[in-house]
Amino acid sequence: MRQEACVSGVRFAELAGWRASSQVSMVERGQRTITPDHVRLWCRICRVPEHVTAELLAEQRTVIDMWQTHQESNRAGLRGRQEKLRDKYQTVRLHRVYQTKVIPGLLQTPALMTHYLTTARLEQHLDLDDVAEAVESRLERQQCLNRPDARWLFLLEEDVLWYRPGPAEVHAEQLRHLLASMRRPTVSFGVIPRAIDRRGVNPEESFTMSELPASVVVTVELVSGTLTLTQPYETRMYAEAWERLFGLAVHGDRARALVKAPLSALAGA
Question: Of 58, 63, 88, 194, which is most buried by a Cβ count within 10 Å?
Fold first, then answer.
């Protein structure tokens, strides 16, 4: 922007009231946190139209909202984070979850929730122990599966069914709960078999895709935080990834057989 406006770094610093032009290059190279005031300053000095300034400020807000660390989201405790999600799930029209690691939260038993949330509290070094309250809040959120005006689609890599994050009895209970959940009229449950010919379709990072009344939101949970994507070109890429993965999955009796396999292995252990 500055170069297109034919403004040198030295001249820009002078107009900005800065002592050194090095501050200009630091901002432009991303070596300093860029605030809305920086955006307004660049737009003013480079004399860009007001609508361009508004667009750039909107893009910056989107970028800021994209990333939230677990420390930030759990500042009010694990329960607080669960409650923040409640309103969103009451307005979702179509909810798609692809998982390579864990049983999706909407399909978890209280026992598995307790294990996962206790682990999260320890890994994130949270002082407040509100795991029981967070479990209660997540259970309340599961009531959204009863909404007749929404669809809930779950897609799991088969290995997720075999991962045992807790005791054998907790895992067995969870698998039986999955079999029961598959009978819900609002739920679609698919499994991608380990031995299937993937035809070049590789596993992706786990993601959740929610169609809301006014937007589509994709969330990707990483080790240190959650990435939230709302730009159409990005959400479209995840929709295309979903279609590729969905084409590999089995449903109905074939999916139930894959759930029963680790359950039978636990019974014979």
Answer: 88
Structure tokens at 104: 């999706």
Q: Please provide the average confidence, as pLDDT, over all residues in the chain.
A: 92
pLDDT at residue 269 in the model: 66
Angle between helix 36-45 and helix 9-16 axes, rounded to 10 deg: 110
In CATH terms, 68-268 corresponds, of 2.40.160, 3.30.70, 3.30.870, 1.10.10, to 3.30.870
CA–CA gap between residue 54 and residue 21 (Å, rounded): 26
What is the DSSP code (8-state) at residue 166?
A: S
Reduce the DSSP state of residue 3 to 3 states and report it: coil
pLDDT in tens, 231-264: 889 999 999 999 999 999 999 999 999 999 999 9
Q: What is the dihedral of CA 83, 84, 87, 92, to 10 degrees?
A: -110
Residues 6+ apart with CB under 8 A from 39: 53, 56, 57, 60
Q: Which amino acid is at 117?
A: L
DSSP of 80-148: HHHHHHHHHHHH-SEEEEEESSS--GGG--HHHHHHHHHHHHHHTT-S---HHHHHHHHHHHGGGGG-T
d(CA 143, CA 211): 18
Domain segments of the chain as ranges:
9-48, 68-268
pLDDT score for 101: 95
